[in-house]
């Protein structure tokens, strides 16, 4: 296999990996937008993940076609635009990492509406309390101050016969921690995407040189 062919195969393989990562980021962003009633900060963070993946897919398609056509001009232009996109992606990932706790707090805000619904329609909080093994908004005291006893979902194994089974952790902090862990995972995936894109840019430059050398040799 010639040097040019080997480099093209390497670029194609990395393109596929990047495309898969981009689709994961886009899917996460869409899931957040569709599944939750978001405020401005929560919405911006979700669209940030969609942006990271969408621009990667577009530029990688350009890079794939440039490598396939073995067009030096298109490949060089691709590398330049890829660097510009990497710069914006890096800024987005940096902001997401820097504001992880704030974003997680805002993404957890839908729980507030569920708690208000719980006060009017008992049972609304059960999905959170079963999911996170938590009780009330901040603690079981939230039920007591509203002249209600904690429901079965506030007890381990739903066993209300023993007071020690009462779960004292509130659902708000658990839901925020859930989002914080998810954000950390997808921020890392965003960083990995950027790293692979940088590697693609370096290999694409080498591919350009290899194509030029092949073209020179074809003249003789």
UniProtKB/TrEMBL annotation:
GO terms for cellular component: plasma membrane. Keywords: Disulfide bond, Membrane, Transmembrane, Transmembrane helix. InterPro entries: Tetraspanin/Peripherin, Tetraspanin_animals, Tetraspanin_EC2_sf. This is Tetraspanin. It comes from the Eukaryota. PANTHER family: RE08073P-RELATED, TETRASPANIN. The chain crosses the membrane at residues 12-34, 46-65, 72-97, 188-208. It comes from Drosophila guanche (Fruit fly). Belongs to the tetraspanin (TM4SF) family. Disulfide bonds join 134-171, 135-154. It is a multi-pass membrane protein. CDD domains: tetraspanin_LEL (cd03127). It is found in: Membrane.
């Amino acid at each position: 296999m010639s040097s040019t062919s080997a480099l093209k195969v390497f670029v194609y393989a990395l393109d596929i990996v990047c495309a898969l990562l981009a689709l994961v980021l886009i899917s996460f962003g869409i899931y957040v937008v569709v599944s939750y009633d978001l405020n401005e900060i929560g919405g911006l963070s979700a669209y940030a993940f969609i942006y990271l993946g969408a621009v990667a897919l577009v530029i990688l398609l350009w890079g794939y076609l440039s490598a396939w056509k073995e067009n030096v001009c298109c490949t060089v232009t691709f590398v330049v635009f890829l660097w510009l996109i990497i710069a914006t992606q890096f800024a987005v990932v940096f902001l997401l990492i820097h504001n992880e706790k704030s974003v997680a707090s805002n993404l957890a805000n839908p729980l507030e509406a569920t708690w208000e619904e719980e006060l009017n329609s008992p049972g609304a909080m059960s999905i959170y309390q079963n999911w996170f093994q938590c009780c009330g908004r901040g603690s079981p005291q939230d039920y007591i101050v509203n002249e209600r006893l904690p429901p079965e979902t506030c007890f381990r194994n739903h066993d209300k016969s023993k007071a020690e089974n009462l779960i004292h952790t509130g659902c708000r902090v658990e839901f925020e921690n859930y989002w914080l862990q998810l954000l950390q995972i997808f921020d890392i995936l965003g960083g990995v995407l950027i790293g692979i894109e940088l590697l693609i840019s370096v290999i694409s430059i080498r591919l350009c040189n290899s194509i030029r050398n092949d073209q020179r040799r074809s003249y003789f």
